[in-house]
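Q: A small favour: would you put together sequence and structure tokens for a protein?
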Amino acid sequence: MSDIKVHTIKEGDSAPKFSLKSHRGEKIQLSDLRGKYVVLYFYPKDDTPGCTIEAKGFRDFSSEFEKKNAVVLG
């Protein structure tokens, strides 16, 4: 059985506490990013054209996100 919990949130709600692993295997907790804007993006399957294009778009604008005190996770 999985320990994954599903939360339904609406626009304006605070995000639930969560953690995830970075591409380097480091644990990232939402609470570590307090005071920053957090952009979460999801894609249906790794190594497909759609996810690659989306990821490149976020990468290409990474400096703009940084200027706005935002971090992108996806």
Notes: Residues 49-60 form the longest helix (12 residues). The helical segments are 49-60, 62-67. The chain has two helices and four strands. The chain has a mean pLDDT of 87.
